[in-house]
Amino acid sequence: MGESQDDRGDRRRRSPDGSPDRNRDRRNRDSRDDRHRSSRRREDDVKSSRRDSPRRRPSRSPSGKERSHRDRDSHRRERRDRSTSADEDRRRHRHRSHRHREDRDRDSERSSRRHRSPRRRSRSPRKSPSPPKDIQRRGPLPSQGDAFSTELTQSGDGPPPPEKEKPNFKNTGRLAAESNMIQVEGGEGIVLKYHEPPEARKAPSKEPWRLYVFKGDDLLEMVELGERSCWLVGRERAIVDFPLDHPSCSKQHAALQFRYVEKKNEYGDRIGKVKPYIIDLESANGTSVNGDPAPAGRYVEVMDKDVLRFGLSSREYVMMLPS
């Protein structure tokens, strides 16, 4: 019975004496296990390094420690150098300020010495200047006019000095002019010379005052004065209440004013009464009461049957109370 070569090879492989195949399998298994173990160790090392990384120092080797010590020493030296340089700058600045103060003090002392030197020289005893002989007078002091007079007038050679203009404290009339301006139809403004006082009143009905106008023996006109408290007399027909035509009369000549005046009787009681008054508004030719000139700008009481005349007019104005 003959066997082929293939059957012989199969028998050899299946025989228990096939040791080379088993060794190969073992080696492959050992290499796999070693690889697996090395990979596990690496993973464990990485995990442990991650856990211990914040706790560990940057370098535990002796070279790292030496480097850290060197860095610390260099930082400390730099800080020391900076502090010493700042201290030196401060000392220099203080020294300079101290020198500047000393220079100021020296300059002030020199200037004070310079200023003091003429005073010390002036302390030398000197005789006080005697007053001039002309000022020394005996007797009372001269009057104010003589004191302000010049030497020429004292000697009598020149003309007398002009009199000094005295201050004028009277009202200028500008405020009154603005408040008493009246606009006429033509557009021009006329300033009133007179405005009524606070005690102005109308004449009471029980005393009907009347003004009679006479020219010679002829009665020209009769005016009831109880209509208003003030009667402006003059040639300016646009503003006056009682017009005058004579050329000697002013535009605003006078004013006839009724005023409430209080007087005390013998028992000390106050008795008030409305009375007529005439006031001349500084006219050119004046106003007269019973032939006597009335003072300009002052109230003059008018009684019953008093005769008024304005300017150089021949007309007579009689104040009367009906009986």
Automatic annotation (TrEMBL):
<protein>
    <recommendedName>
        <fullName>FHA domain-containing protein</fullName>
    </recommendedName>
</protein>
<feature type="compositionally biased region" description="Basic and acidic residues">
    <location>
        <begin position="100"/>
        <end position="111"/>
    </location>
</feature>
<feature type="compositionally biased region" description="Basic and acidic residues">
    <location>
        <begin position="1"/>
        <end position="52"/>
    </location>
</feature>
<feature type="region of interest" description="Disordered">
    <location>
        <begin position="1"/>
        <end position="170"/>
    </location>
</feature>
<feature type="domain" description="FHA">
    <location>
        <begin position="231"/>
        <end position="294"/>
    </location>
</feature>
<dbReference type="InterPro" id="IPR050923">
    <property type="entry name" value="Cell_Proc_Reg/RNA_Proc"/>
</dbReference>
<dbReference type="Pfam" id="PF00498">
    <property type="entry name" value="FHA"/>
</dbReference>
<dbReference type="InterPro" id="IPR000253">
    <property type="entry name" value="FHA_dom"/>
</dbReference>
<dbReference type="InterPro" id="IPR008984">
    <property type="entry name" value="SMAD_FHA_dom_sf"/>
</dbReference>
<feature type="compositionally biased region" description="Basic residues">
    <location>
        <begin position="112"/>
        <end position="126"/>
    </location>
</feature>
<feature type="compositionally biased region" description="Polar residues">
    <location>
        <begin position="146"/>
        <end position="156"/>
    </location>
</feature>
<feature type="compositionally biased region" description="Basic and acidic residues">
    <location>
        <begin position="63"/>
        <end position="90"/>
    </location>
</feature>
